[in-house]
Amino acid sequence: MRLSWCLTKLRLRRWHIFYTLLIPFMMLVYVLAPVNRRIKHQQAVNGEPSHTTTGAPNIRTRMGWMVINTVNKIPVVQYRGAELTNKSFDERGWLNVKNNPCVEETNKPQPESKCLQITVEIQSRMGNHMFMVAAMIAAAKMNGRCSIISPTPMLKVFNLQNIMALNKSEWKNTTTKSNWLIFDSGQIAVYNPAVKVLPICKNIILRGFFQSWKYFHYMKPEIVKQFTFRPKVQEKAKIAVSNATSAVKIAKSITVVGIHVRRGDIIKDPFYKRHGFDVPDARYFFKAMTYFQKKYSNVVFVVATNGIEWSKANLNVVANILGTNVVYLQGNSPEVDMAALAMSDHMIMSLGTYSWWAAYLCKGEVIYFSGYPRDGSIMGGKLKKADYYLPYWIGMK
Fold it and tell me: What is the rounded average pLDDT for all residues in the chain?
């Protein structure tokens, strides 16, 4: 009986000791858990690696960067730190980070042999290519990097300088090495200021469309110089404009206003309509042509279009009402038509990146179709008009 009582007492003491130790331990975990969460949050803000990302390597980047995915073993990064503002950068356009030697060292110009590289994934067509390459050129200058590029028809159109052109296999072999990161721009036409502070110690592949003037407009003279049409293209464009305007009987010098009218695929494919690609109608062109006709003398409207029948049926009527002249560029390649529009004194846009770049390279006034994209549409959620259209361009619809 006494032995049984002793064993029972011992078991009670054992459970008492267990609970005596367990309760403080649980209290300690409860107290430290928020601290651990704060540490992880601070690591994310400081750009330390996200260990929850499957397959993500141990990468230390500039403050605010996180690895969000991997593609063919190449990390994809996006900015996840505090929101950047104009005050976040100094007069050079570099991030204001005190006591951060990595940032300062990376921003210093480096010898070409030691220079970190930057490239861009070329996709879609000519206008999109131009946005991507312009963003790459600006990011390379701002981050002190050397630019390389994969095969693109742009190389035959523009006199691109200080960019190393690789063939397809060379570009793929170069960019699949372990010292590369993919920078994802996010939305199609919403400016992402994080491109100013690319992750350190890694070569960068820019992925996305970068359809915003804010990426490169601060260095517009250099961008325009890069997008100088090759002599053969310029010569063909001059001949095309000369032939088109030769029938116009105006004794004095003329004011050439380029008009781009996009029809074709954007009318036939229901995808564009569903996504908010509303096409400007004749009323828009009437308003825009009236603006230039009243403001300038001896105006001749030079039209480049992939919908010649619609353009002639509508713009000829507008020209007759206004008592002005309209001529058409026909039978030219897209680059020749763009060069012709860029040589105009002023420009009336349609929609799309091709039209955007023709207007950007034009030195005069620009009128754009403010109905693109349609408000509340899918594209309307991916394109911020203040980031896409320059503030001094004139919107009409």
Answer: 79
| Cα 70 from Cα 90, distance rounded (Å) | 32
CA geometry: angle 162, 168, 174, nearest 5 deg:
70
Cα 123 to Cα 141: distance, rounded to the nearest angstrom: 22
pLDDT tens profile 45-65: 333 333 333 333 333 334 445
More confident residue, 169 or 367: 367
Cβ-based neighbours of 333, under 8 Å, separated by 6 or more: 236
Q: What is the pLDDT of residues 201-252, one digit of tens each?
A: 789 999 999 999 999 999 999 999 999 999 999 999 999 999 998 888 776 7
User: What mean pLDDT do residues 52-80 have?
Assistant: 46
SS (H, E, C) the chain: CHHHHHHHHHHHHHHHHHHHHHHHHHHHHHHHHHHHHHHHHHHHHCCCCCCCCCCCCCCCCCCCEEEEEEECCEEEEEECCCCCCHHHECCCCCECCCCCHHHHHHHCCCCHHHCCEEEECCCCCHHHHHHHHHHHHHHHHHHCCEEEECCCCHHHHECCCCEEECCHHHHHHHHCCCCEEEEECCCCECCCHHHHHCCCCCEEEEECCCCCHHHCHHHHHHHHHHCCECHHHHHHHHHHHHHHHCCCCCCCCCEEEEEEECCCHHHHCHHHHHCCCCCCCHHHHHHHHHHHHHHCCCEEEEEEECCHHHHHHHHHHHHHHHCCEEEEECCCCHHHHHHHHHCCCEEECCCCHHHHHHHHHCCCCEEEECCCCCCCCCHHHCECHHHHCCCCCEEEC
Q: Grade residue 178 by pLDDT with cuts at 50, 70 and 90.
A: confident
pLDDT one-digit tens code per residue, 313-335: 999 999 999 999 999 999 999 99
